Batch of 3 targets.
Target 1
Amino acid sequence: MIDKWLEAFIEATAWKMTTPRAYGPFHLTFTLVGIVLCFFIAWKLRGIGEKGNRILLMSVGGFLIITEIYKQLFYYYHIGDRSYQWWIFPFQMCSIPMYLCMIAPLLKPGKLQKGMYGFMTTFNLLGGFMAFIEPSGIVHGYVTLTLHAFVWHMMLIFIGVYLIMSNKHATTSRDYLFAAFTFVTLCAVAFTINVSLWNVSGGSINMFFVGPANSSLAVFSFFSQKVGWWFSTLLYIPTVCLGAYIIFIVTDILKKQKWKRSAKNK
């Protein structure tokens, strides 16, 4: 009975739409308005304290989990015709905040919690921005899937900006290195998942885009097809680490400028 209700609900919400164009009106409007709102709301919530921080992050995590369940059901019932689509297995880099937002606030302040916050303020913040810079992975021919992808990645930006404004971000080179180590470890886990589920997925699974399937990401897909997935992966991992490092450096510079201005005003 529940199975039929779920399928009926998914089918009732499978509203088709013309796939939004990259840098078209929908993409640009959502991106600009969303980023402004992320910064504004993050600024307003920056001083809510530990209890408020716990409630906020776990609420965001809960929202991400609920919407991810909807996405999984949509692909299972409507796209896959009751066949699980392994390529959307929820373990991409941009899926990680769904778990960290539920775990990190429950930990005692310390290295592990700070490491999780550091990962979300570097790698996940980078992932959120990159999704809007290169939007091929977030535009779909269905209203709910497109909204899910756009809202999801905007939430990654919000989480990262909020944690930075709340002084919970990566503040030292060691913090960044821990975040980078976490990313590389997750890549290893993702590769293990890809290999383990390679046959059952028909070679379609590619968590973190590290292979052995060819990458679908712009630029890296070219190298995957021309040279091989292994070469694309060897380019992809350091490139992402560099991008996250740039986020870390820019954040550090902006924070130091803010402290200098505050000191002058005293």
Target 2
Amino acid sequence: MSFELTQETFSFISSPVIFLFICLEIYLSIKKSKHLYSVGETLTNIYLTGVTILFNLLTAGFYLFVFDWAYQFHFIEIENRFWYWFLLVIIQDFLYYWLHYVDHYSRFFWAIHVTHHNSTEFNLTTGFRSSVFQPFYRFVYYLPLSFLGFKAVDIVLIYSITQIWGIFVHTQLIHKFPKWFEFIFVTPSHHRVHHGSNVAYLDKNMGMFLIIWDRLFGTFQEEMDTDPVTYGLTTNPTERGPIAIIFHEFKAMFHDVRTRRTRFANKLKYIFFPPGWSHDGSTLTSEQLREKLNSGAEK
């Protein structure tokens, strides 16, 4: 009897495992008085997960159609099954890195992605706190995989598997893995940094499965015992309702566009330049904040 792993089979197997690990984390949080969970934030995570699942269902048929359409024009044929799956994992993870990078360095896409970061808690359920509108454009980044000869169902399967890895790194209960593992793979330590609002940690560690992309492209930051992670945003939203939790950064962005007295080109920059950019220096990007911090430390 042969067994073929599909996205549906993988979801069926992984879902109860994830639920058990969440229950274990809640138990250990209570037992060790770590206060990793609150009712309000957990319910918000469940709500945002539900919205994301709905949008995924609405878009799945379309992006599978697009992947299948693009596949007919593929110009590479990888016959060796090992290299097929190995390269699919590596290239898909590389493309995810750039998807995630743009989500952090363009304010418009940050306004979408911010739902994953606007919690002051960090636990396994935070991993489900997705960028709810990302399913409407995410497939564009993975389109090159179809042209490279990877089938639509395989692209979706590998994305699902690496996403599960991305959920499990949302924990504070694991300090660090062996150095060789920390050098290659994304770990809870790396991802805690990614969720930090500390200036040194802003917009760092973008990888989903492999941390090597961050090391190669200059976005890597080690977690430092001297700088404990503060979770959330540099300015956390005061409105926490179901609509505000999704749209608060869009509201702030369009407020800047509407009220800032500057030329039209700068108004566009308030939409597409990095979060924090301003024409008059009244607000700062993460890189500018780091430069300010470092220059202050040197004095």
Target 3
Amino acid sequence: MDTSTYKLFAEETLHVNFNNIELLITAFTHRSYLNEHKSTVREHNERLEFLGDAVLELVVTEYLYSNYDDPEGILTNWRSSLVRTESIGAAATKFGFEPLLRLSRGERRGTERARAQILANSFEAVVGAIYLDQGYEAAKQFITTSVLSTFEQILETGSWMDPKSYLQELAQSKETSTPVYKVISEDGPDHDKVFKVGVYVNGKLRGQGEGPSKQAGQQKAAEAALKFYRQDIIPA
């Protein structure tokens, strides 16, 4: 993609008029792309990601501190839910980051999990680019629009809580029973295994999920079970 594509994206989607559009282009440049274009590309986005991560955390922390009087532990959990990979990756997807990513051919064929991480990293890098080019207030405005706007939904659904802990509360409340996790299957070589895990309440499957470890599979299964309970289904 040429420079004009990134300028148009910045103006129409990010609502930012970059003075130095190369900062934004770098924010979308993965390390793997640099390896394939060493003669024309000099920098990838990891330094911007480092900066953007700090700006993101500061903006979110400032927002929570200014608007809520809850204890530190609650504020910390809320902040974690807003800045975690899934949240900022979803924001990057919503804003249409993926077509703008500059990746190697190998990375373009990568796993869905790897792509989600790349999107999250690019989001932080874009925050860093906006901060450097336009200052703190512009970065804050972008974060408010893209991330903080989801906070009411996070509170409403309880997704800020650890999924397994929240599921245990719901299962005990609705079914007077504690969830039990079981590995349904294991696939793939030892260095790249995928575990499918089911979570059962009163012996009935309430959700299942996959992950690179049993713990990750349990988390995904718990998230799936939470969706089951949010549908207001009364267990038989």
